[in-house]
Amino acid sequence: MEWSAYMDEYEKLVTRMTTPRVVIDNAVCPTATIVKVDSARKHGILLEAVQVLTDLNLFIKKAYISSDGRWFMDVFHVTDVMGKKLTDESVINYIEQSLGSIHNGRTKSYDGLTALELTGTDRVGLLSEVFAVLADLQCNVVEAKVWTHNGRIACLIHVNDCNSGTPIEDSQQIDRIEARLRNVLKGDNDIRSARTSVSMAVTHTERRLHQMMFADRDYERKPILQHSAESPAVTVQNWVERGYSIVNVQCKDRTKLLFDVVCTLTDMEYIVFHATINTAGDSAYLEFYIRHTDGTPISSEPERQRVIQCLQAAVMRRASEGVMLELCASDRPGLLADVTRTFRENSLNVTRAEISTKADVALNVFYVTDAIGNPADPKLIESIRQKIGLSNLKVKELPALDYQGEAEREKQAVGVTGAVLLSLGSLFRRNLYNLGLIRSYS
What we know:
Blueprint: H1 3-18, E1 21-25, E2 33-40, H2 45-54, E3 59-68, E4 71-79, H3 89-99, E5 114-121, H4 126-136, E6 139-149, E7 152-161, H5 171-186, E8 195-199, H6 205-215, E9 233-239, E10 244-252, H7 257-267, E11 270-280, E12 283-292, H8 301-316, E13 323-330, H9 335-345, E14 349-358, E15 361-369, H10 378-388, E16 393-396, H11 403-411, H12 416-434
Antiparallel strand pairs: 1-2, 2-4, 3-4, 3-11, 5-7, 5-8, 6-7, 6-14, 9-10, 10-12, 11-12, 13-15, 13-16, 14-15
């Protein structure tokens, strides 16, 4: 065989070996769809797999992650936001194709847009001022996400030129945007830590928000506004004999929880070798066996405390505090500035926001509290809806999962399907037990 032909066959073999194998099964478990991924072990690939599922707003109810040498095996029990198994073939096919290509990396395309990154001290009305400046500078907000935590705010806003619909690339215009926004972020008390930047880079938005808040050291800051959400319980201990650090997280279950935790561990340069994720009722229990990228466990008490703080912050950044308001209206210049100005004039603080535009329709979600972080007065909310438009601004709630019904269905799964489900769960627990990674698989 000629050398070139040999190399072609070798490259095909490497491709087959490194391409993840994906199996999606709706028959094994009566309460969830099983998504199994076998892949070569690579730093960040677990995060990419979880990202595929969470970008579809799927709940990961259970998961087993285990590595053997250079190979990973991940099993996820997922449902939709209603707590039901996945039945849409187009969604299932999308998951298979996306997970099958995660070794190539996945990013969302933002062609034709300019990305603005902002961090600073949060205050009532800040978002209104930001959108007012962008409207004044003829910037059209196409998509944006805003997080607040511990009195800090991080915004990733994708804009284009209002008149031409093209990216903003003129250096003088960019300088004006940055200068105006920096002045807004500084206010009277944030002269040193307010930051703005303009980028054409493509990054997963929510991962970038985690990175921005991590760089801003929000995990170390004391909250300026009152927060009602309970802080997650995080413990970190070393298993010296096996050379792992064991991280346990216990908190309220929600969508994208696993993504937030794995994202933070990945960006802190830790590798997850084994993990078990379980939910009971509305609570989530996550256990990770991690090492540094150089193969060593956590080495000091300050580092251990830092991991605890960072994971608590990762969970809390997305905690849905306040009333959820959904704005659906025809898009127009200044719409966001007008809506958020109404919030500001009524002393409502936006704790989180997701902005999107599709076919000239604005689809925006805001979480709002009063000025000190308490629930907003329902009468005030109704007054604001009257001003903005009852048909445009609606109070929304996420559908509540039927936890009790789900538990009953699991108890009744005693037939063949139930036996297979228990066998699957026991298999992965037994593998972890045999590796010496858990104390019991029963």
